[in-house]
Amino acid sequence: MLEIKNVTVKFGGLTAVKNMSMTIEKGKIHSLIGPNGAGKTTLFNVITGVVKPVSGEVIFQGKNLLKVKPEEIIYKGITRTFQNLQLFNFLNVYENIYSGIVHNFNGDIIQLINGKSKSFEKDIRDKILGIAELLGIKNRLSSYPTQLSYGILKRIEIARAIVSEPKIILFDEPAAGLNTEETNEIEDIFKLINKKREITILLVEHDMSLVMNISDKITVMSFGEKIAEGTPDEIANNEEVIKVYLGENENA
Ligand SMILES: Nc1ncnc2c1ncn2[C@@H]1O[C@H](COP(=O)(O)OP(=O)(O)O)[C@@H](O)[C@H]1O
Ligand SMILES: [Mg+2]
């Protein structure tokens, strides 16, 4: 579904990503792990078009993503969340989720000309209510972000990401700042949106129990390069991974 081929990214003299390749298969939960500074977020930025690699290719459903403008990536069915929450505090929860809707303008204009905007509006409302129900935030729709716990805000962010009906979502450290209970909730939500909404997930995350529990496949990066790839079991027992990452994580 999404293929990263020999991607290299440089920031001045620093090579942040070096000849990186990985393939994310449709319907899977694929995690990308590695120490801070390994190049994980930079790779997300390449996929979403905000960072241009010096070489390499990114192919999504047979199309070269590097030719797509960053603001148009979302029309291809790719969304992401950020390391820091980016919700609007002046909008309520319903409106925040609504802000994730991507309009297919051709479709909209035809709807309006035919006087169907009312049913179109209802479709959107039903869609938002359905997602809010799925994520357990239906009773928070009229609250404002500043009134809610961090765990709930994370769910709102996920709701906003899936309201555009993406084919794949890139999550950058979604469990950062969450307690164990909230992390377990996020784990359930990922399983739900993966299975029920058939959304492929690419996950960057430091919480190893979350990664090991939900990943079909794990890719490990260190200093911009891929050092290992495999199932959770294979990665947990890979000596180099333990040396450069998992060991360090245990001591932390
Ligand atoms: N916009 C940027 N300009 C310069 N250097 C950057 C930029 N973004 C990231 N880097 C550097 O690239 C390397 C990889 O960073 P990043 O992709 O954020 O790593 P990770 O997400 O794995 O922690 C780091 O050395 C970081 O300092
Ligand atoms: Mg990062």
From TrEMBL:
CDD domains: ABC_Mj1267_LivG_branched. InterPro entries: AAA+_ATPase (IPR003593), ABC_AA/LPS_Transport (IPR051120), ABC_transporter-like_ATP-bd (IPR003439), BCA_ABC_TP_C (IPR032823), P-loop_NTPase (IPR027417). SMART domains: AAA. Residues 2-248 form the ABC transporter domain. The keyword Thylakoid does not apply. It holds the Pfam family ABC_tran. GO terms for molecular function: ATP binding. Keywords: ATP-binding, Nucleotide-binding, Transport. The keyword ATP-binding applies. This is ABC transporter ATP-binding protein. It comes from Marinitoga aeolica.
